[in-house]
Amino acid sequence: MTASPDALRQAPLYRVLHALAKGETSSEALTGACLAAIARDGHLNAWTWVDAAGALAAARASDDRRAEGKPLGRLDGVPIAVTDAFDIAGMPTSLGLPGHPGLAEQDAHVVRRLRGAGAVFLGKTNLDEAAFGTVGRNPHFGDVRNPVLPDRAAGGASGGSAAALAAGHAVVALGTDTLGATRIPAAFCGLVGHKPTLGELSARGMAPALRRLDCPGLLARAVQDIGLVLPVLAGYDAGDPRSRKRRVPLAPPDWVPGELKAGVVADLSALGVDAAVVENFSAVMARVAAVFGSALPVALEIAPLEVAATRRAALLLMEAEILAAHEARLGGASTRLRWLLDFALRKSAADAARAHRRLDGHVVQVRRLFEQFDVLLLPTVASPPPAWGAEEPANLADLTALASLAGCPALSLPLPGGLGLQLVGAPGSDLRLIELAGILASVADTGE
């Protein structure tokens, strides 16, 4: 039995792994189909760098290993898209900025883990300039187009990875997530997006946007795929000062849905969330209520957390970080980015200290929430995907920021119309979130 490489490039990871293991296709054929799709879809502006020769060579090597019965790991031969914020040896890392930064000498830590599992790297995907944006806008490589909703924004900052995966250019994708940069484009492009617990995946070799919050993120077509890739990437890295050294593994997926204490964000309109998003979220919660049995979700108001104000404090720190880390490459930056960064130049060290103190307060407040709840449920985005070329909404990341600012894991399930259902758990509850997300996806029309 054979499987069409062109069909498999658009299939969930678990189906691709089965096909490769059973010999229904080869990595070379699958990689070739992905590269052909990338070449056809140049209008999407999803890629900043494509290494066709390197990818095909890696695919052939994978096929040789499988023929000998010696695959490297669970991802051997799987074509993967990587956001252009991670170092891949022999490729440039642009971070969406102009000019040629030179070729990376070594892999980022998560890239090394993927390479060790046999993944095939197709190249680098486009992102917002300096990873500072939520709609996929880049004046140097072109704005990322949404292959699912062509008249709408693709989301950002990891919009290129989301567009590439949604268009069948790769089987899974690696993104960044500082304040929602994986989950927002996942929602806009109809994908599953996961931001792990801060420090669970090393950020070494990832171009910094805000080290305090920077986190690699995962994009996939199915919840199950997240569970397959996360263990490959997770683990302590002494080279990352924020890497999470655990005395025990991630909490096991042992939640009983009917006994869960779920908090459902209820004051969405007061938070400025679009009416269409509020209506959609209410309808979804009505469909999934049966999952929780007698332990009905509890209405929760998060306005007292003042997430939007804390996110703005984080943006000040992010602007300062970009100036400090990438100053040598900002000469050709857009007027918009320079204007944003100038704000940080006008601030003082005391302003930065106050911003850090505000973020610390948010961490404590969210910890207290998880003394009352096991999981929080809320929309992924505050508004539907804006029209292509429209002004970037100021509050688009307010709902994803809740988890990011506290270092919590969060998972976004796709909903029709470029929306998403977001699950947030306490630090370390990643596997539990993945299991619950799989259950919710099976009873709700998530498009997953």
UniProtKB/TrEMBL annotation:
<feature type="domain" description="Amidase">
    <location>
        <begin position="30"/>
        <end position="433"/>
    </location>
</feature>
<dbReference type="GO" id="GO:0003824">
    <property type="term" value="F:catalytic activity"/>
</dbReference>
<dbReference type="InterPro" id="IPR023631">
    <property type="entry name" value="Amidase_dom"/>
</dbReference>
<dbReference type="InterPro" id="IPR036928">
    <property type="entry name" value="AS_sf"/>
</dbReference>
<dbReference type="Pfam" id="PF01425">
    <property type="entry name" value="Amidase"/>
</dbReference>
<protein>
    <recommendedName>
        <fullName>Amidase domain-containing protein</fullName>
    </recommendedName>
</protein>
<dbReference type="InterPro" id="IPR000120">
    <property type="entry name" value="Amidase"/>
</dbReference>
